[in-house]
Amino acid sequence: MTHLTLQAVTKRFHTAYAVDHVDLAVPDGKLVCFLGPSGCGKTTLLRIIAGLETATSGTVAFAGRDLTNVPANQRDFGMVFQSLALFPHMTVAQNIAYPLRLRRVAKNAQAARVTELLELIQLPHMADRPVSRLSGGQRQRVAIARAIASSPKLLLLDEPLSALDAKLREAMQVEIRLLQQRLGITTIMVTHDQREAMTMADEIVVMEKGRIAQIGKPLDIYRNPVSEFVADFIGLGNILPVTFDGTDRIALPGGQQIVVDGAQRARDAAGGVRLLIRPEDVSMRSAMTHSGPNVLSGTVTFIRDVGASLEATIDCAGFTLTAATTPRETPALQVGMPIFAELPPHACKLIAARTAP
Ligand code: ADP
Ligand code: MG
What we know:
The chain is an alpha+beta fold. It is 24% helix and 33% strand. It has helices at 42-50, 92-102, 107-120, 136-148, 166-183, 194-200, 218-223, 228-233; strands at residues 2-13, 16-27, 31-35, 57-62, 65-66, 77-80, 154-158, 186-191, 203-208, 211-216, 238-241, 243-244, 249-251, 257-259, 273-277, 283-285, 295-305, 310-316, 319-325, 338-342, 349-352.
């Protein structure tokens, strides 16, 4: 079932479009991420859904009901902002109980719910601690407990992890995702971090300048981005300008021709095409084991070996490639050594070039 539906939602600040004709359906129980660079309209769109911002035009409907004239406090949505906005002078329990107090829930029911939520966020002994004496991760959990205290029908999260350091942030991503799945609560989360979106989302909505650039499952978007903007934003990629004559052969910047699958898709790209190949799809060999059309020769110019993964920069005539592997797979790699890089045709994607701003 589709829970939340947006139709042609648009927000103009003076003459600038922060959100530009967004159509979207968020299915029941799923976690959807709004992903995009700073200023692309993620927060504005989330605030329109929350009722904290009025759309210039378009409609937001929830479970079939038009929300246009429903104020934020009657939408029954839970929200966590970037700043968390916890009450620092209150205890953990008081913070979590706050939305219940607003709703005049009976005292003993409030206490029972707070106990239940403290168990859920694994802070059972912290009820009476002031939030000012919690760690960043604990505050994060309290903010989420408060947002879901009154069992909202939709949970809205605006970059809730951005203040945390990298390690804690990755741990919280898993924690929030598992909690969301356990509760089955429909959730929209804003982030500018593609790795975070790929870790947590059922569906990613990639936004560019107020518009939706692509919607899809994380790996579908990673594997089949519709444009250079999306390819570049999601994951590491080798994106090369190529000459394309409409056949299955393209010419690389150095002039060498390679074969690509699915070239038809790019045929209509008016503004030119780019070749996308992900680093993990580039395979490296120290000797020319077979001479296929898609084997390029180059020189290793840099190795980033972080133990668990390894990235090599390969200078080919006219362009550079990044290849990703593991130290175990390529133990003998060294800077300065000649290398052969194979680009399998099925992994070579042609995408529409980014249009000038
Ligand atoms: P994001 O969350 O993706 O970083 P925002 O939704 O905050 O982006 O902002 C989108 C665009 O709208 C930006 O260009 C921003 O400057 C503009 N904007 C946001 N809020 C306001 C406002 N209250 N008044 C004027 N411009 C705004
Ligand atoms: Mg924002």
